[in-house]
Amino acid sequence: MNIKFRQETFRGDFTFANSPDTIRRFPFPFNEDSYMYSVNMEPHVKGAPGTAFDSLIDVDEHYISEMHDRALVLKEDPLRCQALPHMMTSQWDTLELLMEQQAAGYPEHFSLARDGDNWRWINKPIGIDQKFVFGDASTLPQEPFEYITRQAQGDFCIVDQRNNNLWMDAGMVTTQADWSLDFDIGMNFMEWHGPVPLAHQLGVFERALKFLLNLQQGKPVRRLNWTMTINPRLDTSPENYHKWGPDRATVTPENVGSKVHLRCELQSLWRLPRSNAILFVIRCYLIKMEELVTVPKWGRRFHRVLRDLPPELVDYKGLTRYRPTTVEWLSIYDDGKPTSSGIFPD
Amino acid sequence: MLVVGIKSRPVYSGLAIDTHAPRHLFALEGEGAMALADQVAAVGRDFLATSEILYVARGAENHAAALAELKPFDLWTAPTIPILLYRLKATLISAKMGARFYVSGTEGFIGQAMQVAIENGIDFNSIRTEHRGSMARRVQCVHCKGVTDNVTTQPCTCSHCGLTLLVRDHYSRRIAAFQGVCIDAEEPGTAPAPEVLFP
Questions:
Q1: What distances in angstroms separate CA A54 from CA A41, A44, A125, A297, A344, one per listed residue?
Q2: What does each C-alpha distance from B145 to A58, A273, A309, B15 come to in angstroms?
Q3: Does the first or last residue of chain B, that is N or C, have fewer Cβ atoms within 10 Å of its Cβ?
Q4: Closest-CA residue of chain A to B3
Q5: How many domains does chain B divide into?
Q6: Taking 60 as the threshold, does the pLDDT of residue A104 lie above it?
């Protein structure tokens, strides 16, 4: 399938929008009418065509514009991409995985040819034809992790496994929900999740860590996470919080539909073959409220989820200022009818 | 405002002399000297003969003389923290297998001494630490990345970029600092007046 890539922005004039088909494939993160943290992991296997699970590394109409936005972030702040020195093997693991997956999922856009260690990577949407030697970083314009994650949607963290823990030792983080790679790099699983409320007490992180330490190669897993963002801004980093924070005070009943976005993270976790590290993909999807409610089930359900959200989560996710206005706006789309189970449109 | 119980916040569980260690290396700041004195009272003087102490005075009282009276194998006093850290690095480079490293003083000092130790190949879990003295914090501004030492108030002002920062409990060992995040980002000019929270 040929993807028609959109030219759009995630800053300034914010021209980002989803086409009707892309709205239908949005990975809506709520499988019921309420939300609380859980270890909601499932095997990351291919789903039905027309969903975000169509390919295991998803490429969509926003690809080119997202990669352009990433380049802008890195130009301003190179520390958004870092890898500790012992992570080079896992950098190559990541490059291989992302090239293989993108080429397998979208052969009309990407191709990978291998002759021993001599590889040739073609990325048609961005216009790259790169010959390089796998394992020899001097044959690429950047280190392998930065090179490939400048060409793949979503944030990427590589976590090293040692001492019965996972360590955040590399990352490309430019589309994050308010956490700092530069601050968190080198932390273990419990430490980098430190600021998350409630979930520690629920035992969520202990169970998740135990599960992930046993993650097997060739059996990736996924979960959905979510927050909300004002304006379709990918770079909601703490580094720039003083620049985007004021947006949260600009929501009015008139602009909820176009300004308020549900932000879903499709997180997938992959055991890497050479390094035994885990690649943690945090793929961000944005959808405007006016787009969301074109799927009646999602409009009803999101109204109920947001209305009944525990106060700790409202605070942690930074929704305090605009939640009441948004709930009020959504209530028009909730006729009180029951919703079907699962995340997909009816 | 300050969310407590964040898991990245360090826990300092006390110096607890490792009596099996062949060598003991102490980095002590200010009132941290008294943590060592308390250990002498608790476990006796035997370990002092194989102990090297690096000390920097801080606050009203200088404990260098009291430490000298303990007659350790070596006592070296530094005029400032950076000088102590420089010497610490040299000491760690020549340290032998089995040496035990202890740090006591304010959080900012403990963090910086651990940072030097980690950079020189010591597992942070093996370092014994005890917090003594001021509650003042080292804070990194997440916006400009500048570190401000001896922060006693909530909120505080970044000494580099001037933003008013909420001091969080989220802590980075690598940076040896707590995270500071602009407190009035959403409505500039609405920052509350600073209160002394870390005296």
A1: 18, 11, 19, 21, 13
A2: 34, 35, 34, 31
A3: C
A4: A195
A5: 2
A6: yes
Contact in structure between A110 and A103 (CB atoms under 8 Å): yes
Last residue of a domain, one of B131, B148, B166: B131
- Residue A196: phi and psi, rounded to 5, are -70, 125
* ipTM confidence: 0.89
Q: Does the residue B17 lie in any domain? A: no
**Closest of A258, A140, A159, A142 to residue A215, by C-alpha:** A159
Annotated catalytic residue, options A24, A223, A248, A321: A223
3-state DSSP assignment of residue A243:
helix
Which pLDDT belongs to residue A76?
Answer: 96
Q: Residue B168 contacts by C-beta under 8 Å, 6 or more apart in sequence?
A: A195, B2, B3, B6, B178, B179, B180, B181
| CATH code assigned at B121 | 3.40.50.80
DSSP string, B177-189: EEEEEETTSSSTT
* A86 in contact with B, Cβ within 8 Å: no
A160 residue type, one letter: D
Containing structural domain, residue B31: 24-131
Decide if B11 is inside a domain: no
- In three-state secondary structure terms, A25 is coil
A321 an active-site residue?
no
pLDDT along chain B (199 residues), means of 10: 71 94 97 96 96 95 96 97 97 93 97 96 95 96 97 97 95 96 94 95
Q: Are residues B29 and B106 in the same domain?
A: yes
